[in-house]
Write a structure and sequence with these properties.
This protein is mainly α. It contains ten helices and no strands. α7 crosses α10.
Length: 223
């Protein structure tokens, strides 16, 4: 099946096979941010302000329009994303079976698409079909491979903090820093405890360290 070609035997979902090509844009913005930061001493202030104002205006306008491009609620997507990826990492065959039973078929990989991206596109399809985060999260529950009774050991996992770290680990450093003011302080504290970061004074270096450890946790989980 070609990328975005209509004419699938399931026309209702054919549009979902077209993937938004955000990679080049995201990479370009990251390179631009790095260049601006490293070259800031070189710029002539008045000329730079003129050009940067135009760029910032276009960027603000795009950010205002961006939510209208979503296929499903961003709130639902973020609520389910960490648990969804963890379930795929732990039980990929079971998740494939559950999704196929729900949707009737699984979306095709498209060119240059990673397993991570494919699974997130599948999450959007499932959310669009169910329109209920609780039902989507129910799909991520582990199979009953163990009998009833307490698990061995006495460690109790902070699932909320783990999910938050896995979610932050998928963000760029810039995204994480921009979202800091909106994060729940108690959740941030629990996450810091989980990865051994002191938040007595959450300065920029501390925030970057917390994000770096979240990225490491996410990558380790994905592996």
């Amino acid at each position: 099946m070609s990328d975005g070609e209509p004419g699938s035997h399931q026309p209702a979902s054919a549009g979902l096979e077209r993937r938004a090509k955000v990679g080049p844009l995201a990479e370009g913005l990251r390179r631009l941010a790095d260049t601006l930061e490293s070259n800031q001493a070189l710029y002539e202030p008045i000329a730079f302000e003129r050009e940067a104002t135009l760029l910032a205006q276009c960027f603000r306008e795009f950010l205002c329009r961006e939510p209208g491009l979503h296929q499903v609620s961003e709130t639902m997507f973020r609520e389910c994303r960490a648990a969804w990826l963890r379930a795929w990492q732990q039980s990929p065959r079971e998740m494939e079976r559950r999704c196929e039973n729900l949707l009737g078929r699984l979306p095709h990989h498209v060119a240059d698409e990673s397993d991570l991206s494919w699974r997130l596109h599948l999450l959007v399809e499932v959310l669009a079909a169910l329109q209920d985060p609780a039902r989507v999260l129910a799909l991520t529950e582990a199979p009953d491979s163990e009998g009833p009774g307490p698990r061995s050991g006495i460690h109790v996992e902070d699932r909320g903090a783990t999910d938050a770290l896995l979610l932050w680990g998928q963000m760029t450093t810039e995204e994480f820093l921009l979202s800091w003011a909106r994060l729940d302080p108690d959740l941030v504290r629990r996450c810091a405890v989980l990865v051994g970061v002191s938040l007595t004074r959450p300065n920029l270096a501390t925030k970057r360290k917390l994000h770096a450890l979240a990225v490491r946790m996410f990558r380790n989980t994905l592996m």
